[in-house]
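From the thread on structure requests for the teaching lab: each student submitted one protein with a one-line request. Submission from student K.M.:

"Model molybdopterin molybdotransferase from Steinernema glaseri, tokens only."
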Amino acid sequence: MRIAIITISDSSFVDKSLDRSGPVLRDLIQKSEKLGAVTVTDPLVIPDERELITTSLLSLCDCNEVVLTTGGTGFAPRDVTPEATNSVIERACPGIVTALLNRSLQATPFAALTRLSAGIRGSTLIVNLPGNPKAVKECFEVLETFLLHAVQLIKDDREDVVKTHKQLS
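Reply posted by the TA:
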């Protein structure tokens, strides 16, 4: 599985050393025992600009099974990651958003102020994560439990889908 990461943050774009969420997410992916063989990109760091987010998502969907974003999901005027994501996805995945939000709300009531989005474009799953490194860890705990199976389903990999379903019963 090939996973791309985009950090969306004006401050991290100006000073890449400020990006903590992207590297945390990359490390979590690389250390996960639930994802199998994974190739993960170094985080692409871009500012909170809708057109640039949209263009980056479109480009990364062409060569990755999963694109994970971190940042730009709050209520601030420049937080436009969900809008950019919604403009490129073809099928929404509200169950993923609900799962991530439920986990986040266990940690803090401020999670109610997130506007995560998730969906499928072609054969690529796109998931928005919060910009806070702690929230990224919390969301990834949930995401890693079903991410591989989601990719199997999207790719219509029937052999692996059947195998996974048998393991569940």
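TA comment: The domain at 2-168 is CATH 3.40.980.10 (Molybdenum Cofactor Biosythetic Enzyme; Chain A). The chain has seven helices and seven strands.
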